[in-house]
Amino acid sequence: MKRLMKLTVLSLIAIGFAAGCNEKEKTEQTAAAPKVAEAPSTVVVPDQVKGKWKAVQIQVADKNAHLKKVYTLKIGSDFHLPGSDLTLNVETFFPHFVMEGTTLTSQSNDLVNPAAQLVIREKGKEIYKGWLFSLYPTTHAFQHPQYGFTLVDYLPAS
């Protein structure tokens, strides 16, 4: 009886070890598997939006100093963030952001889902290129150790 119990315990240990090896192999296979490239998105500024917006306002939160300040960034122009090595550039503003397949565009010139495409460079090197959404500030939010960025307002061209 003792021998049977011992054999059962050893069998369970062996099964557990084998299962653990399989999990390790699966993890290694997953890590080694080629990544599927996402289809690049195309940004299309419709005529009804072109030239209608001159700037956006972005709130910058300095996490270290516990301060928040709003800056006005002209669309298409570089803005050096004071006291930092960061340069911000709003490449595109869409008042009614929509995604149609791989195309990013604005469905209208009405402020339905405002979004700004922001490029952030640190010491000249691009560290972020993505979208800020005023209605959904935490969606795809850029994670920087010191600064947080939020789209808060938009200024029409005239």
UniProtKB/TrEMBL annotation:
Keywords: Signal. It comes from the Bacteria. The keyword Signal applies. Residues 1-18 form the signal peptide. PROSITE patterns: PROKAR_LIPOPROTEIN. This is DUF2155 domain-containing protein. It comes from Geomonas oryzisoli.
